[in-house]
């Protein structure tokens, strides 16, 4: 098999893992040095595919041969897909070539499980070691961690990689037992724990080798089982708390060829995935708790964003006086982000906030209007019922595609 | 009305602005004219400025100067008067002038954001190609069309990335060449460099195109997000640019009900038998 054919198969096999971040790495530079590559903490999206997703890293599997039979996965052993395997040297060549062309900022390498978890992990480590030690590669490396692999192998991976990830795959144990019979919640969490420990040690003990400085992330598949958004968000919240994950990715289940009967034939609406990302962002950046966004079982609303939904359910906090309120409360107003909230706070040290200031800050005023008070503005809509407001503010459904 | 002529550089503007500030000339009384006219014009213009009593020494925060320098890279017909107005207001104690909520500050921040974004576009969407020509001197060359004057300030990024490689970036206005040690800037771009950067497509791109086609999930086609993240003006110079409309129409034609790339779907599959030891071991022959 030619290299280009392997690449075609193994990029297709890897794309259902949506993580592509190249951010969070420490500052490294190759200026005037042997070797190649730099990181500065900021991620770069070098391209976007027509699905709107960014291409920051060369995201491939080392091989899509796999012993496991996870029902939602295109590479499960019972799947009728072409199979291929890269040698570690081929992955190195591709990474360096794409990197020099400025097509990518690094490598995201994962693999099907071949022979054993330990063997597979050793192979992944070998690629990272070649890149770092033989070729002086200072770009970004994200390695998938095989849950059942020896903690010593995970430790080795952490020395070479900027980011490690173990996929939780499904939000509940029952779903995992049903759809991914070879995987166990307990080993997945043990692997997350090992990574968390490694990060902790590298931070606390002076002189200890670096360990995955861009932290760890995970992915949950949405819509392959009946789990609701509330369970998903609560699971994410506990992962952020227990293992200090940098990111939880939500991947809307994408129908796969020759799909088994255990998983749906239809994809969930992409909007559901989008709302989960918005809710996740509110938990990470705005101090919302999962229970505030969804107090009982159920899904996030599709027609309005989760911040607006929270505001409509909690009218007693509004309207917020932008000249007096705490910055954190200003950031909770629909249509005003954290950055705008900071800017309003610095502006109000100089003058009274007026309505036109919000226009200049490019806040989403249609959304914010019913919830704010400024020096020269009080909302007429403040007393309007939430139900009416919601009808007014909901995003009108889009016309369906013709084909 | 004072006509102030200078060389069009930030340093030139700064020198002139400092002088005007000392002389207490208000922003509305100044017309800025930048250009590459011979030196001497500037001095002549200076002569027309009446030497009023210089005000006390003006202190301008370093950070504001950095902001003004960055904002000066924004291409707009009259880029200098806003900068002087903000400088003037801050010098008079009106610090709100540089905040995003202010009438001038919001324009400043709009320009800063656009300039930052364009530097980011350069870092993201520029594509190096191995240089075919022996005479080139550079190992990698690229062509880029930035919307603002960010080439010199933003291209050092590639010195960090490329190690000891020598590279060249040509644009419609200027060009930069990294010789392994230092960055040389040339304005205008030498025609020979331009020719090198615009050489026809090289075969090495085939791997990248195969990757791009395969990593796209046709079941999730989303044109509007694509276009907001990767503006159409960049497609022309990206190797994957011509593939974009092709992949979109294939996906839209409904051939794709799932996420698999067409090039993979055409190939024969291979199921792996459960429980047979070594069966999923690609090292072993079938």
TrEMBL record, chain A:
PANTHER family: ENDONUCLEASE/EXONUCLEASE/PHOSPHATASE FAMILY DOMAIN-CONTAINING PROTEIN 1 (PTHR21180), TYPE II SECRETION SYSTEM PROTEIN K (PTHR21180:SF9)
Origin: domain of life: Bacteria
Annotated protein name in UniProt: DNA modification/repair radical SAM protein
Cofactor: [4Fe-4S] cluster
Taxonomic lineage: Bacteria, Pseudomonadati, Pseudomonadota, Gammaproteobacteria, Pseudomonadales
Coiled coil ranges: none
NCBIfam families: rSAM_link_UDG
Matching SUPFAM superfamilies: Radical SAM enzymes, RuvA domain 2-like
Keywords: Iron, Iron-sulfur, Metal-binding, S-adenosyl-L-methionine
From TrEMBL, chain B:
Chain intervals for the UniProt region annotation (Disordered): 258-286
Chain intervals with Low complexity compositional bias: 258-267
Family annotation (InterPro entries): DNA_repair_put, DUF4130
Protein name, as recorded: Probable DNA metabolism protein
Domain DUF4130 per the UniProt entry, residue ranges: 78-240
Biological source species: Pseudomonas cuatrocienegasensis
NCBIfam families registered for this protein in UniProt: SAM_7_link_chp (TIGR03915)
């Amino acid at each position: 098999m030619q290299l280009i054919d392997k690449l075609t198969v193994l990029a297709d096999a890897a794309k259902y893992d949506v993580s592509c971040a190249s951010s969070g790495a420490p500052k490294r530079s190759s200026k005037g040095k042997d070797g190649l590559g730099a990181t500065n903490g900021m991620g770069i999206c070098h391209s976007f595919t027509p699905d709107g997703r960014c291409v920051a890293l060369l995201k491939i599997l080392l091989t899509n041969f796999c012993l496991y039979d996870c029902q939602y996965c295109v590479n499960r052993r019972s799947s009728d897909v072409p199979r291929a395997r890269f040698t570690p040297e081929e992955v190195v060549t591709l990474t360096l070539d794409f990197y020099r062309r400025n097509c990518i900022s690094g490598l995201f390498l994962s693999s099907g499980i071949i022979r054993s978890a330990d063997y597979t992990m050793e192979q992944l480590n070998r690629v990272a070691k070649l890149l770092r030690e033989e070729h002086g590669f200072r770009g970004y490396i994200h390695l998938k961690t095989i849950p059942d692999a020896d903690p010593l192998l995970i430790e080795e991976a952490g020395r070479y990689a900027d980011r490690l990830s173990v996929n939780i795959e499904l939000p509940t144990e029952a779903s995992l037992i049903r759809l991914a019979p070879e995987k166990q919640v307990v080993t997945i969490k043990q692997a997350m724990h090992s990574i968390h420990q490694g990060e902790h040690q590298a931070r606390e003990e002076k002189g200890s080798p670096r360990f995955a400085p861009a932290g760890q992330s995970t992915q949950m598949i949405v819509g392959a089982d009946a789990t609701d958004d509330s369970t998903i968000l609560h699971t994410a919240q506990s992962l952020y708390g227990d293992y200090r994950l940098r990111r939880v990715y939500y991947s809307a289940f994408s129908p796969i060829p020759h799909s088994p009967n255990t998983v749906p034939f239809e994809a969930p609406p992409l909007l559901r995935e989008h709302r989960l990302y918005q809710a996740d962002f509110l938990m990470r950046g705005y101090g919302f708790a999962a229970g505030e966004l969804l107090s009982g079982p159920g899904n996030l609303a599709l027609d309005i964003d989760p911040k607006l939904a929270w505001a409509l359910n909690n009218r007693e906090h509004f309207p917020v006086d932008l000249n007096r309120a705490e910055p954190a409360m200003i950031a909770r107003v629909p249509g005003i982000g954290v950055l705008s909230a900071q800017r309003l706070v610095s502006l109000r040290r100089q003058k009274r906030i007026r309505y036109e200031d919000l226009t200049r800050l490019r806040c989403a005023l249609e959304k914010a209007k019913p919830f704010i008070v400024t020096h020269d503005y009080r909302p007429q809509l403040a007393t309007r019922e939430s139900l009416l407001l919601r009808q007014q503010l909901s995003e009108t459904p889009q016309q369906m595609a013709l084909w | 009305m004072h006509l102030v002529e200078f060389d069009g550089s930030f340093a030139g503007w700064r020198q002139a602005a400092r002088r005007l500030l000392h002389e207490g000339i208000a922003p509305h009384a100044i017309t800025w004219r930048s250009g590459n006219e011979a030196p001497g014009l500037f001095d002549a213009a200076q002569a027309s400025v009446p030497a009023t009593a210089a005000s006390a020494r003006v202190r301008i925060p370093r950070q504001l100067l950095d902001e003004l320098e960055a904002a000066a890279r924004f291409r707009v017909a009259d880029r200098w008067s806003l900068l002087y107005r903000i400088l003037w207001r801050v010098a008079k104690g009106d610090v709100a002038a540089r905040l995003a909520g202010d009438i001038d500050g919001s324009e400043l921040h709009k320009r800063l954001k656009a300039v930052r974004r364009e530097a980011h576009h350069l870092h993201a969407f520029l594509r190096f190609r191995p240089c075919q020509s022996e005479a080139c001197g550079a190992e990698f060359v690229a062509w880029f069309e930035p919307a603002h004057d960010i080439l010199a300030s933003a291209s050092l990024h590639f010195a960090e990335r490329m190690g000891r490689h020598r590279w060249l970036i040509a644009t419609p206005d200027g060009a930069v060449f990294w010789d392994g040690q230092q960055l040389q800037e040339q304005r205008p771009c030498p025609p020979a460099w331009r020719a090198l950067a615009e050489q026809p497509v090289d075969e090495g791109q085939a791997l990248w195109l195969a990757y791009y086609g395969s990593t796209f999930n046709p079941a999730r086609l989303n044109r509007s997000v694509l276009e907001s993240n990767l503006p159409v003006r960049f497609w022309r110079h990206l190797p994957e640019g011509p593939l974009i409309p092709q992949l979109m129409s294939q996906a839209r034609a409904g051939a794709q009900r799932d996420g698999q790339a067409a090039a993979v779907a055409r190939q024969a599959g291979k199921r792996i038998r459960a429980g047979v030891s070594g069966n999923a071991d690609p090292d072993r022959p079938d």
